[in-house]
Amino acid sequence: MNRKKVLALAVLFALFFFGAMSPSFAEDAAAEAQVADMAQELWQAHQSGKPIPVLSVDYPQLDVDMAYEVQKAFVEKMLADDEVAGYKAGLTSKAGQDRFGIEVPLAGVLPASGKLADQTMIDSSGFHMAMLETEIGFVVGKPITEHLEAPSDLKKYIRAVVPVIEVPDLGFADMKKLTGSDIIAANVSAKQFILGEEQTAGDLDLNNLEVKLSLDGLVVNTGMGSDAMGDQWEAALWLINTSLKQGWDLKPGQVVITGALGSMIPGKPGEYEADFGGLGRLRFTIK
Asked: Is pTM beyond 0.85 here?
């Protein structure tokens, strides 16, 4: 076959192949490129200590599904020198969801580098905007790799429950333009978290557990276990299934924290004590 015929066949093949596939292929390629670009923006801000970019300003097409893709790509960059300690829920109350224009809770990944113990000292200079949440955590006892149907199924995989103080960093570049999708993409502001002593769930009524957080002896926040989606085990089940859907497997020792009990409050300097009733107490200092 002479050269002209080979070139002609190549052109015909290219026209057929790309002509048939170009619309969806081009759209998919463009979306993948945008996800990569957004994840890189978040990563660069993370590395340089700059405020978290509000991606939806430049990427108005950022919806919930794309935001989780960005989150996965961003977290995978962090995991080059870190590990997954667990998973977190955010905006588990309707008021919080309404504030950021979203109809469902949010899920993020907890970095092992952010894990702290009781009676720790937190340096707020490492945050753009340190916040505090009292939460309940569920410690995984057996690997979870498939969707779970009910809380009764989940209980077979949980070895313990723990009191938790989450210290997210809400340091976005523009809070007025912030959307739920922006929060998802930025890994739901996960940064640090304090875990108390493990204990078996047993007969603990987690939903009726009252939690009080005090600063320098004065109560600054109160909440109930039921504040997280109305039911702690349902909240944990939702978070685990959502994390599985995003491509994460849950491993023994990882913790699942189910969202704020009461309000998310600013992390002001001082001495804190969190009383979780039958679940124990946590003490920490912010400087």
From this structure: yes
